[in-house]
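Supplementary notes for students who missed Thursday's class. We covered one full example, reproduced here. Read the sequence, then the structure, then the short commentary at the end.
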Amino acid sequence: MEGDDCNETVDPITPQLRAIDAINPMDAAFNDALAAGITSAMIGPGSANVVGGQFAFIKTHGRCIDHMIVKAPAAMKVAFGENPKVNYSGQGTSPSTRMAIAAMLREELTKAKNYREKQKKNKDEPKDFRYECWLPVLNGEIPLKAHAHRADDILTAVRIAKEFGLRMTLDHCSEGHLIMDELMEAGYPAI
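Structure (token representation):
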């Protein structure tokens, strides 16, 4: 559908996608936001993919996205649970389980870490567009934005962020109240 640029649903791992390439500053929602007093917004890909892509923090006033950017990339979107499962199991491909979601994310993060190490050792190493976008995440410059509703999905997100030493926000965190002690101990912000 025209104008629906929220999810690229042909590959579950798309870290190279940039929200700034899908934002239409001419959309009436920007005028509505300004009228309501909202002067900036964090905008990113949807949660159909295990890795959805890069968020941007932008001003809500303007006609050219390049002039509206406050910070881009500002975060990397990852999703746990139902959204990636439903989207890809219907296509007869992975992920169709929570185990596959976690495994795919770990594999991607491991490849990104290996890429970073290779780049550090050899400055002449050719850049890989897919893994270059992970460097701000791995270097702690931007967080993962983890879409997670169920308590077990939230704890999987925490487990993976800890394994890789990453900053993270827990977005939605619907069942966070059920695991409050664990979340307090983990220390990741919940939105």
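Commentary. The chain is about 40% helix and 20% strand. The chain has a mean pLDDT of 96. If anything here is unclear, bring it to office hours.
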